[in-house]
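[INFO] parsing input record for Antioxidant, AhpC/TSA family
[DEBUG] input buffer:
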Amino acid sequence: MKKKLLILLLFILSLTSFAIPLNNMDKDGNVTLPNIELVDQYGKKHNLQDDYKGKVVMINFWVSWCSDCKGEMPKVVELYKEYGENKKDLIILGVVTPVSKKYPNNKDRIDKKALLKYIADNKYIFPSLFDETGKTYAEYEIEKYPSTFIIDRNGYLKVYVKGAISKEELKQNIESVLNPKK
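[DEBUG] output buffer:
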């Protein structure tokens, strides 16, 4: 019992130190994140809660001007291919936030048209969802790029990485959620 309580407290402390919204934490320490309803570069609408029940979901928030993102995105593409291109148990999504006249304070420095070209030119084939209002970035309190969230099959946050990590670390984190040890 004491060990479970200690693990729960450490988990809570680790989340609070990274400024994840904890208003969605249940009595067991499980954190749910805000729903995402956005359209990707292919024109497909995604609803995080409705479309991916029972799946493990990795969400990677990135911006085109970030050197760490530029280094990490090819690794995300490789993992997207390795794990079945969202046709199996792992769903990989990116989230981008282009600037516009209506939303000049969004985090990227280029508009949607330029961002679509950037994604295509760099062959970022995994779905990148367009947060054109900046609402999703604000709800997820994104301050560092890239930021990666891995959500388990029950919809609970299991991994949060603030900043770039290696492909091997990403894969270890994915595996820990896909195949948890009991």
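[INFO] The longest strand covers residues 90-96.
[INFO] shutting down worker
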